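Incident review: delayed structure delivery

Summary: a single-chain prediction request sat in the queue longer than the usual turnaround. Root cause was a stuck worker, restarted by the on-call engineer. No data loss occurred. The affected request and its eventual output are reproduced below so the record is complete for anyone auditing the incident later.

Affected input:
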Amino acid sequence: PRLRRRRIQGVQVIGAIDESGWAIGRLEPDAVLVTIPEAPRERLDAVIEACSRAGIPCRFVRRQIDLDPGAVLGAAAE
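Output delivered after worker restart:
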């Protein structure tokens, strides 16, 4: 919550992980960057599902490393 409406490396923080479906529908982004890959699996799966439904790439970003959710979560992300 403290990062909301701020920018991280030039990318605006739109909202919390629970707001991803709303944000994707409203803002129609080119991609979604998840910066908390250690969040509970169910919450991450919900973000991946919302991105999949919208046809938007989803990436997990941790400490300067860009990770593919399929590599992090396995087959559930496909």
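Verification: The chain has a mean pLDDT of 80.
Action items: add queue-age alerting; document worker restart procedure.
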